[in-house]
Write a sequence for this structure.
């Protein structure tokens, strides 16, 4: 067996990059037990924490990039270790040294694209508002009720553009005065920050903040829980405090205020999946359910692993940009859970979840099918 | 509407007492009994309908596996019969005013809706009540009725009606129970009563609550039927539980073959809703449940999921090994999550982590959550009423140098309200509370006390034997195996038997009273009770017989439980036949029994305390303050013992300041006579009348005293490994502490320190845990870290045993960058000298199980947690005082659970690390406890010796001396009679074991109550 000596400089470096909470660990193994990775292969967060405490992190290994930052292990950790902060700290170090394993190299292209065009798809910045053509969407001006911030996926991805469209139609129907900032928007930066590129995140955030301030933005409506998370919890690091609301919460408000009501009911059997960044990270479980209950004819059934136990789709932590072999995708397991309770439609409220579930639904065996829809698409069909 | 009443339930009519004990669990009961024995009047108050607390719900207790109710219920009856103790159940404290020495307390006696002086506990009302409710005693796993007795051995044995579920009390419908009660004891209009009492001191012993996993839905509890708490499982194990002792699982009643125990539920976590401390008892109680379950059901396979096994108490390590070595038992180090519940069979899967083999998922038939201990539900309320402070965990705030004192003078705390405690520690703290109350109220002792009055003893010498036989069911313990009615019928056919009956629980107050009544009514002069073991119940039944007005030695306890139903549980017919044989033999013997008298001897009111450390000095001061003469002998030149080498504690106590203060107090006290550089040469005598010869500074002194407290302390093991003794840089923890205190350069300038735990113990040679070292290591690590913020510290351990509130310091140490590495006993760390970068340093190599690699830690210093070993003089002291040592060389107390400071030999007590390694706070608590027990002996006017002892027929004695050499208690001696030397038995020292009888060649020496004739008669009847 190989003998190693602890390396103080490395454990200090990890602490300096925000990972100090690894100190609390008492090796109980709960993080491994609850981690979704261990449903598809062997992965030990406990070992990563342990390596960090001795400065013996293997910076070139795949494992430090596996974490989707789903938030299950820090929630259960009895000692208060923040595994996400640790993971980000390790990735910061790897980013600084430019050490990326093969499955992670797409991140380089993504970073370049974010910096150049403000989106990860390497598509032109000017085309960011193209999705709104033909829809009742204006440019944001001061005094409007809300700024609608669709985010990169809803602005550029063909599937998700339909969600943006549905959202716009709902807002219009409800008489909400809203606008977008189109090409002036940058990616919110949440996911690239989780890949350790702190510099790029700060750049994107600062530009966004300047844009918001210049346009007199006060309240921001988001479709992506990732945008929600960073605007609400991380942008305040820059001493700004915008009011952030997620579409599921806003829908509930609109319905309660009588501004929106279904004219008929959605008949198909649905089940709702809690996105990690909406549910576990930000405590929003009831708003989407309250909305859906009022839209469907039958009350939606709950899958195994719901609410705080929700099974991650695999998209967070920058993994939406990384390669995951088909048999290692959590989204496949999640679809199986939806099928197990006899649902026809899997409804969610996050662009990453929607993308991953749609992808996995294409690979289902013969005879099995399930529709993947966003919450706004359900609402829009019945109002 | 509360009604003023002038009297409480006892014969006391003036509402003035000495001490109020709040909470009637085991520690409250022990405190009440100790105080009562010490001559103080006690009010024992409990908010539930019966005394007993959590211990009454346990099946067995660790580490002896004694039946919990068997060792607790005799104490219930002792309390109810004690003239100095008034029990007030269903009673709460409303208001407290005054100060130490003069408190005025308002109590509210909640209505039971049953008149206590009329109810006989016959349970007819229970049979007829139409309302079924979940039974709280069985943790809601079975049904009871709206009117019921809390449990069968309850004291008081009186029903109570639950106002929430009684149809009449809710809706004024139904009063069937009123009609069927033969004594008109039910009063559905009963009102609460207000009672005002005056006492001098208060002991708070409200106990604890178990952590409730339903609040957060931990581990599927509340949703999954086959996930139960440990207390629910305890009831399932019990013969009086929901399934009569069959282990069945809630969903389908099947016997579960694969059972998982999940440790630390609700404990050791910073997650909101949990507790950060360790609950101390769960590791041991889980091992108990594993052992007992295997007993019930040999095919059971147990898996215990944990993160450290805290087997830190006396005999715990062996108990752990006992559980672990059972076939089909695994201990897996991993916290877990629940996978899923199978919809078909309701089995539950558990996911756990392994070292290097990934996450496993396994299915279990039943999951037991080892829930932690939380503060009692009404802690905040009680604290408010009594004006005391709680600590940050919601338990009573105590002083580390006096864990019995609360923040308010005159109010003391005992039991688990101090913090998670097991039964022995609760009992110790109860006795300690007695000592402190005694110190406060010494001037009051005996003033309000009452003597027990027995009916006059009938002279039956001219009567024919008239035997009464009482056959007990012991719930299901005997009744399920032995056909009790047929034994009763058989007994009534035997010679001399004039009365035979059965009882459900002969030991319950009502039954016991009925036996006494029957003796009187039927003029019985011999009693045979066919039930359990004399070990636990002989004193109780002898007392009952005395209450019946005849000599207590006219009683025989025929054991048809341990000797019959428990060992022949699968052979009902044969067991019943054997039970009949046993009863017949017993009845035959009783015909020959003679009345015997107990002997009263005078008491010398001084105490000899051996050992002048923290323990000895604490006992000395407490007893001196209560007016007793104390002789304190110490073998060293200075007082202080091991504490002289301790400077600070985890809680930040300045030990040296405390020590100089207490030493000064001891020397100054006029009633304490100190001898240092002393050696004990000879001891003779017995309780109340010891004579000890002490040599000190070349003078010899004969001390006469009535009691002894052994407080000889312990020593530090000198390691013979890890380069200790070969390299100056390897120290023990105590040496390290000394160096840190002295600000030693080498230590303070060290860049790295590695601590190695479990050095010299938890080995085959010393198979116990030294208890204090995990905390000591963390204490010193934190201290060093404070002085040298950059020093790297590693602690290499096997299990981190920072139990109780010390767990917080473990987390604190981790937060400060102190690193912990676990090693396996078969892969110990290696310490060697190494050269690195021109420096000569030490290298510690240890395998880290998570990394799967060996780590080489280069260090300037190595500190070893050397074992705490028994004092070298223990053997000598043991021989001099004829007290036993346990297999590890520490002193052996009379009963691990319920007599933790007593020796089996009367008048001798034990405290401190002589008993077992412990922390200073625990030593102080135990020292107070020993002082209290010693005072219980010395405060009386005489000491009573049992009547079942040996005697010598001088005509037959040939003075061969065989009996003298056989006696382990030195109870026999020669004396010069008119006809030459004859053997003579000292009645106080004789324990009545009869060994001498076996040796005597002429049969001159005989054992009263077990004479040859009596034994032959018993054998002939077999």
């Amino acid at each position: 067996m190989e003998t190693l000596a602890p390396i103080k400089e490395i454990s200090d470096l990890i602490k300096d990059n925000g990972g100090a909470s690894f100190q609390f660990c008492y090796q109980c193994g709960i993080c491994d037990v609850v981690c979704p990775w261990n449903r598809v292969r062997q992965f030990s967060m406990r070992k990563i924490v342990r390596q960090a405490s001795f400065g013996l992190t293997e910076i070139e290994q795949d494992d430090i990039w596996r974490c989707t930052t789903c938030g299950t292990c820090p929630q259960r950790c009895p000692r208060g270790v923040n595994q996400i902060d640790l993971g980000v700290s390790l990735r910061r170090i790897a980013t600084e040294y430019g050490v990326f394993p093969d499955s992670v190299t797409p991140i380089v292209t993504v970073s370049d694209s974010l910096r150049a065009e403000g989106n990860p798809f390497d598509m032109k910045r000017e085309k960011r508002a193209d999705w709104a053509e033909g829809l009742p969407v204006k440019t944001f001006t001061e005094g409007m009720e809300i700024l609608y911030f669709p985010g990169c996926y809803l602005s550029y991805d063909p599937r998700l553009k339909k969600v943006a469209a549905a959202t716009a139609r709902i807002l219009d129907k409800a008489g909400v005065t809203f606008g977008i900032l189109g090409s002036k928007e940058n990616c919110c930066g949440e996911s690239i920050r989780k890949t350790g590129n702190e510099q790029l995140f700060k750049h994107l955030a600062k530009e966004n903040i300047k844009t918001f301030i210049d346009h007199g933005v006060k309240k921001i409506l988001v479709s992506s829980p990732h945008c929600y998370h960073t605007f609400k919890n991380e942008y305040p690091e820059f001493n700004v405090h915008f009011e952030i609301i997620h579409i599921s919460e806003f829908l509930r408000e609109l319905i309660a205020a009588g501004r929106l009501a279904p004219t008929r009911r959605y008949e198909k059997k649905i089940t709702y999946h809690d996105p990690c960044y909406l549910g576990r990270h930000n405590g929003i479980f009831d708003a989407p359910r309250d909305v859906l209950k009022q839209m469907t004819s039958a009350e939606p059934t709950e899958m195994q692993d719901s609410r705080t136990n929700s099974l991650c789709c695999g998209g967070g932590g920058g993994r939406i940009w990384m390669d995951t072999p088909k048999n290692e995708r959590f989204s496949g397991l999640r679809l199986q859970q939806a099928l197990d309770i006899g649902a026809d439609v899997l409804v969610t409220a996050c662009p990453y979840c929607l993308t991953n579930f749609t992808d996995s639904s294409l690979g289902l065996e013969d005879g099995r099918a399930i529709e993947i829809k966003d919450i706004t698409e359900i609402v829009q069909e019945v109002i | 509407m509360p009604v003023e009443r002038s009297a409480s339930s006892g014969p006391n009519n003036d509402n003035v007492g000495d001490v109020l004990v709040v909470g009637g669990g085991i520690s409250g009961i022990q405190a009440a009994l100790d105080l009562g024995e010490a001559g103080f009047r006690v009010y024992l108050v409990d908010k539930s309908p019966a005394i007993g607390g959590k211990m009454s719900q346990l099946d067995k207790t660790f580490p002896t596996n004694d039946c919990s109710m068997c060792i607790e219920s005799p104490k219930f009856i002792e309390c109810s019969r004690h003239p100095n103790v008034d029990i007030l159940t269903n009673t709460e404290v409303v208001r407290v005013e005054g100060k130490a020495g003069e408190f005025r307390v308002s109590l509210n006696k909640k209505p039971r809706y049953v008149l206590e002086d009329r109810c006989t506990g016959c349970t007819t009302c229970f049979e007829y009540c139409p309302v079924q409710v979940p039974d709280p005693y069985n943790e809601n796993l079975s049904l009871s009725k709206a009117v019921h007795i809390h449990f069968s051995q309850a004291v008081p044995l009186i029903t109570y009606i639950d106002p929430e579920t009684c149809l009449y009390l809710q809706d004024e419908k139904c009063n069937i129970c009123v009609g069927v009660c033969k004594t008109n004891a039910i009063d559905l209009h009963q009102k609460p009563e207000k009672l005002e009492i005056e006492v001098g001191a208060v002991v708070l012993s409200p106990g604890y609550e178990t952590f409730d996993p339903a609040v957060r839905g931990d581990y599927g509890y509340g949703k999954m039927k086959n996930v139960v708490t440990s207390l629910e499982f305890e009831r399932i194990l019990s013969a009086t539980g929901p399934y009569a002792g069959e282990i069945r699982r809630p969903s389908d009643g099947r016997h579960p073959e694969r059972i998982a125990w999940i440790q630390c539920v609700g404990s050791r976590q910073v997650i909101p809703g949990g507790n950060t401390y360790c609950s101390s008892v769960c590791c041991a109680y889980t091992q108990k449940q594993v052992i007992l379950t295997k007993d019930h059901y040999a095919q059971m396979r147990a898996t215990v999921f944990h993160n450290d096994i805290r087997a830190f108490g006396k005999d715990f390590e062996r108990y752990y090994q006992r559980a672990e070595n059972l076939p089909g038992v695994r201990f897996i180090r991993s916290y877990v999550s629940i996978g899923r519940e199978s919809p078909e069979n309701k089995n539950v899967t558990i996911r756990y982590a392994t070292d290097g083999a990934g996450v496993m998922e396994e299915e279990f038939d039943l999951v037991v959550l080892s829930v932690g201990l939380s503060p009692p539900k009404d802690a905040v309320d009680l604290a408010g009423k009594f004006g005391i402070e709680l600590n940050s965990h919601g338990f009573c705030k105590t002083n580390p140098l006096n864990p019995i004192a609360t923040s308010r003078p005159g109010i003391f705390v005992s039991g688990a309200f101090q913090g998670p405690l097991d039964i022995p520690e609760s009992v110790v703290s109860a006795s300690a509370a007695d000592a402190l109350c005694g110190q406060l109220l010494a001037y009051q002792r005996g003033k309000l006390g009452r003597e027990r009055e027995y009916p006059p003893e009938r002279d039956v010498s001219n009567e024919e034997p008239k035997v009464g036989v009482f056959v007990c069911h012991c719930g299901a313990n005997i009744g399920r195996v032995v056909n009790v009615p047929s034994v009763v019928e058989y007994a009534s056919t035997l010679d001399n038997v004039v009365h035979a009956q059965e009882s459900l629980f002969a030991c319950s107050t009502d039954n016991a009273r009925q036996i006494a009544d029957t003796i009187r009514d039927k003029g019985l002069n011999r009693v045979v009770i066919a039930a359990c073991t004399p070990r636990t119940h002989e004193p109780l039944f002898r007392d009952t017989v005395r209450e019946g007005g005849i000599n207590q030695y006219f009683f025989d306890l025929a054991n048809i439980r341990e000797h019959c139903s428990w060992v022949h549980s699968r052979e009902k017919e044969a067991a019943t036949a054997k039970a009949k044989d046993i009863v017949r033999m017993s009845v035959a013997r009783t015909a020959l029994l003679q009345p015997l008298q107990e002997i009263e001897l005078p008491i010398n009111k001084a105490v000899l305390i051996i050992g002048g450390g923290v323990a000895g000095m604490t006992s000395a001061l407490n007893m001196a303050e209560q007016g007793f003469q104390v002789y304190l002998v110490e073998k060293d030149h200075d007082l202080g013992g091991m504490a002289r080498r301790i400077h600070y504690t985890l809680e930040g106590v300045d030990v040296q300041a405390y020590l100089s203060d207490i030493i000064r107090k001891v020397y100054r006290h006029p009633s304490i006579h100190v001898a240092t550089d002393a050696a004990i040469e000879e001891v003779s005598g017995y309780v109340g009348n010891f004579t000890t010869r002490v040599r000190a500074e070349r003078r010899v002194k004969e001390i006469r005293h009535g009691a002894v407290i052994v407080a000889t302390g312990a020593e530090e093991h000198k390691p013979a490994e890890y380069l200790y003794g070969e390299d100056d840089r390897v120290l023990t923890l105590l040496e390290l502490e000394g160096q840190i205190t002295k600000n030693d350069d080498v230590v303070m300038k060290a860049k790295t320190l590695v601590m190695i735990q479990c050095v010299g113990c938890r080995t085959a040679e010393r198979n116990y845990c030294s208890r204090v070292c995990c905390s000591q290591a963390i204490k010193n690590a934190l201290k060093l870290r404070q002085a040298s913020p950059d020093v790297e510290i590693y602690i290499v351990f096997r299990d981190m045993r920072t139990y109780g509130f010390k767990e917080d310091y473990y987390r604190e140490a981790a937060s400060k960058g102190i690193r912990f590495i676990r090693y396996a006993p078969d892969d110990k760390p290696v310490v060697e000298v190494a050269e690195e970068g021109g420096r000569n340093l030490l290298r510690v190599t240890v395998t880290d199980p998570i990394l799967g690699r060996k780590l080489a830690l280069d260090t300037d210093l190595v500190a070893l947690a050397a074992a705490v070993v028994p004092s070298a003089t223990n053997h000598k002291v043991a021989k001099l005082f004829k007290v036993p040592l346990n297999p590890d060389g520490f002193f052996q107390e009379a009963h691990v659970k319920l007599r933790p400071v007593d020796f089996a030999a009367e008048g001798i007590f034990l405290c401190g690390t002589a008993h077992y390694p412990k922390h200073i706070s625990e030593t102080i608590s135990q020292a107070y406890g020993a002082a209290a027990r010693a005072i219980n002996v010395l405060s009386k006017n005489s000491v009573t010796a049992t009547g079942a002892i040996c005697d010598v027929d001088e005509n037959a004695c040939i003075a061969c001396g065989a009996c003298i050499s056989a006696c382990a208690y030195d109870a026999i001696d020669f004396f010069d009679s008119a006809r030459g030397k004859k053997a003579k038995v000292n009645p106080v020292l004789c324990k009545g074991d009869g060994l001498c009888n076996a040796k005597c060649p002429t049969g001159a020496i005989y054992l009263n109550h077990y004479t040859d004739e009596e034994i032959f008669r018993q054998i002939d009847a077999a």
The CA atoms of residues 72 and 105 of chain A lie 26 Å apart. The mean pLDDT of chain A is 95. The radius of gyration of chain A is 21 Å. Residues 198-214 of chain A form the longest helix (17 residues).
